[in-house]
């Protein structure tokens, strides 16, 4: 769903195994980027959260663009259970395949978090102590995920070649205009609970974040269907 929709190569042309491997690799690198860039940013600008967030957001947006361009034609480059569930609800992916995608996203995303820790010589196994909770943060996650789904469906509908740029730019911006810094992804929310770094979230705060993300995704999908699928 987030792929560039290259006409000659579509996700249906690849076996499930190939698509799942693409999701696994893409999720690994996205999660490595989110955690690793957060660690690097805080080390290079200690005490300056604004610079750290800027570095984190730019790195994440750039990585999303690359991963969608590379893996989009194979699996759709979802890297996000909310995106995968919306794709399945739209008939773009079977429900059993969606379940396999989500397992790969979470599993290899966690491996990516561990890899980031090892690269920066931190303990691989951690639990975050970074509290992120409250109505403002939950609203931020719902808004961020609504906007992400809306961006993907709109770009796929009208400018499929620009999906990578649209998603990368949207997430870079959403880091700044949402109170939660725009996780907008249940898999990365789970993985970030295993990192006691700049990008972490306390495990106890994960369920509410995921609930807000799924609510935002559902509302985004329904609204986008009404606006963009008018031809059907």
Can you describe what's shown?
The chain is built from eight helices and no strands. It is an all-alpha fold.
How helical, in percent, are the residues?
55-70%
Series of H and E elements: HHHHHHHH
Shape call: globular
Count of helical stretches: 8
**Beta-strand residue percentage:** under 5%
Main beta-sheet annotation: none
Unreliable runs: 1-9
Q: Which class best fits the helix and strand makeup?
A: mainly alpha
In total, how many beta strands? 0
Quote the average pLDDT.
Answer: 93
| Rg (CA only) | 17 Å
How far apart the termini lie comes to 18 Å
Q: Could you provide a short overview of the structure?
A:
With 232 residues, the protein is an all-alpha fold. Helices cover 69% and strands 0% of the residues.
Q: Which helices and strands, and how do they pair?
A:
Layout: H1 16-44, H2 49-75, H3 81-89, H4 95-119, H5 135-158, H6 163-177, H7 186-192, H8 206-228
Helix pairs in contact: 1-2, 1-4, 2-6, 3-4, 4-7, 5-6, 5-8
């Amino acid at each position: 769903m987030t792929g560039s929709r290259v006409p000659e190569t579509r996700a249906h042309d690849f076996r499930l195994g190939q698509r799942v491997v693409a999701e696994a690799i893409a999720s690994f690198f996205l999660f490595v980027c989110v955690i690793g860039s957060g660690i690097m940013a805080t080390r290079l600008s200690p005490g300056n959260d604004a610079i750290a967030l800027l570095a984190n957001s730019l790195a994440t947006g750039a990585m999303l663009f690359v991963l969608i361009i590379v893996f989009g034609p194979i699996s759709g480059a979802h890297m996000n259970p909310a995106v995968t569930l919306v794709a399945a609800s739209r008939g773009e992916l079977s429900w059993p395949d969606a379940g396999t995608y989500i397992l790969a996203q979470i599993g290899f995303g966690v491996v990516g978090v561990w890899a980031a820790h090892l690269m920066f010589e931190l303990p691989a196994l951690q639990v975050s102590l970074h509290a992120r909770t409250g109505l403002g943060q939950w609203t931020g996650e719902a808004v961020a995920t609504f906007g992400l789904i809306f961006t993907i469906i709109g770009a796929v509908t009208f400018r499929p070649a620009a999906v990578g740029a649209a998603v990368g730019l949207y997430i870079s911006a959403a880091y700044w205009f949402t109170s939660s810094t725009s996780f907008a992804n249940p898999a990365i929310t789970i993985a970030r609970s295993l990192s006691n770094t700049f990008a972490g979230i306390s495990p106890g705060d994960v369920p509410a974040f995921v609930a807000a993300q799924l609510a935002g995704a559902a509302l985004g999908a329904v609204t986008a269907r009404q606006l963009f699928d008018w031809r059907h």
